[in-house]
Design goal:
The protein is mainly α. It contains eleven helices and three strands; from the N terminus they run ααααααααααβββα. The protein has a three-stranded antiparallel sheet with strand order 1-2-3. It starts with a helix and ends with a helix.
C-alpha cells in the first residue's frame, strides 16, 4: 500500500502532508465491506467536495479564457469537460484505476475501468488534495489534468453536452424527444445517489447513475447515445 501511495503521488505530482487524506480519496465504498476492522471511510464526502471545487475552477477558467463566448456556449463547454465520460478518460491518463481501493467483487466486475467510478474518484482525489494543501495544489492538479481537454473541446465549432447530443440523435433517428425519469435515490443528503432512466415514448433506452440527478441523466444519455448509434 505505501509504495502504491508513493507511486500515485509521483503520477499526480503532489506529495500529501497527510497520506490518510489520499487513502480516503482512493477508497471506494465497496472496499469498506471487506475491511470493516480498518477504520476507513469511503471517498464519497471527498467526491462531494471535489465536485464543487471542480465546478468553480472550470467556470472561472472558461470565463477568463473565452470572454467572447455567450452563456450557452460556456455552459455546454463546461458540461463537456466535467462530464463522466471525459473525467473517466482523464482518470485513465493518470492511471487512477490501478490505485483506487475496491472490493474484490467490484474489481471482478470491471470496477477499475468503470467510467462512473473513475470520474467519481477523480473528484474525490481533488477533494483530498484540497483538504491536504488548500486551493493552490488543488488548482494545480486541475491545470495539469484538464488543460488538454479544454484546448481540444473548445476547438469545436458547436458545443453539445451529452443530453443535447442524445436529444439531437433521438429526434433525427426516431422523431422523439427523450424523457428522463428518476428511478431511485438513496443515501443521506450529503451523499445522495441517483438512478435515472431515459425513455423514448414508453421505451426504456438506458439508465444512469450519479451523485446528482444531473449527473445521472448525463450518464444515461451517454449510454443511450451509444445504443442508438450502435456503439455498444
Amino acid at each position: 500500500m505505501n509504495q502504491n501511495l508513493k507511486d500515485f503521488q509521483i503520477t499526480i505530482d503532489y506529495s500529501f502532508n497527510d497520506e490518510n487524506k489520499l487513502i480516503k480519496g482512493l477508497t471506494h465504498r465497496s472496499y469498506l465491506n471487506e475491511h470493516r476492522g480498518e477504520n476507513l471511510q469511503s471517498n464519497e464526502t471527498c467526491e462531494f467536495l471535489g465536485d464543487s471545487i471542480l465546478e468553480f475552477w472550470i467556470s472561472d477558467k472558461l470565463f477568463n479564457l473565452f470572454p467572447k463566448f455567450d452563456e450557452g456556449d460556456l455552459t455546454n463547454l463546461r458540461a463537456l469537460i466535467v462530464c463522466t465520460q471525459n473525467l473517466a478518460l482523464i482518470s485513465k491518463d493518470i492511471n487512477i484505476g490501478s490505485f483506487v481501493m475496491l472490493s474484490k467483487g467490484e474489481e471482478k466486475h470491471g470496477g477499475r475501468t468503470n467510467p462512473s467510478i473513475l470520474a467519481d474518484t477523480f473528484e474525490a482525489i481533488l477533494g483530498s488534495i484540497y483538504l491536504d494543501g488548500g486551493t493552490t495544489p488543488a488548482f494545480a492538479f486541475l491545470e495539469k489534468t484538464l488543460n488538454k481537454s479544454i484546448l481540444e473541446l473548445s476547438s469545436k465549432q458547436v458545443f453539445k453536452d451529452p443530453k443535447s447530443l442524445f436529444q439531437e440523435i433521438a429526434q433525427s433517428k426516431k422523431g422523439i424527444t427523450p424523457k428522463y425519469q428518476t428511478i431511485s435515490e438513496s443515501g443521506p443528503d450529503h451523499q445522495k445517489k441517483f438512478e435515472v432512466a431515459v425513455f423514448l415514448n414508453e421505451e426504456l433506452i438506458a439508465s444512469g447513475h450519479g451523485n446528482s440527478k444531473q449527473k445521472a441523466e448525463e450518464d444515461a444519455s451517454i449510454k443511450a447515445t451509444k445504443i442508438l448509434t450502435n456503439l455498444v
